[in-house]
Amino acid sequence: MDELYEQNAQIVYRFLYSICRNEHLAEDLTQETFLQAYKSIERFDGSCKISSWLCQIAKHLLYRHYQKTKREIPSELEEMASPAETAPAPDGRVMAKLELMEVLKDMQKLPPAMREVIYLRITGELTFREIGEIMGRSENWARVTFYRGKEILWKQHKKF
Predict the structure, then answer these.
(1) Cβ pair 9, 37 in contact under 8 A
(2) How far is 49 from 151, CA to CA, in rounded Å?
(3) Half-sphere CA count of 85, side-chain side, radius 13 A
(4) Average pLDDT of adjacent 10-residue blocks, the chain of 160 residues
(5) How much is the pTM?
(6) Orientation angle between helical segments 50-68 and 23-39, nearest 10 degrees
(7) Which helix or strand (DSSP H or E) is residue 154 part of?
């Protein structure tokens, strides 16, 4: 089990953090994920990668956490941009932040599955295959859903 943890803990943590954007919650749920996996390892049938199975467990734990605390799944990401090597002018930063806010607002209008695919791809840095496995769909479905979501956002953003 230690080897399983060493190989997959970072993947599970990044997955959880990409959804909840809370370091402490992601850490706690990563630990809980491996505890649940240990308790139910006999149910792993090998039909997907072990990391995908663990991310499914993590997703269910996160949803259960939000149900218990009567919170909705986060609908906004915190600022995604990393600091640039050369800082833009203050007015450029304001414009970039406003554009980011508009894109994030537009993302909230997307269907939940499409929004989750985009979050997992961009912030979780997961492959389309991993996203498909996590969401119980095909790699192609994840790829097409991401593309369609990106197209919708592009069309919405072009209006400005």
Answers:
(1) no
(2) 30
(3) 0
(4) 82 85 89 88 80 86 82 42 40 59 77 86 82 89 90 71
(5) 0.50
(6) 120
(7) helix 139-158
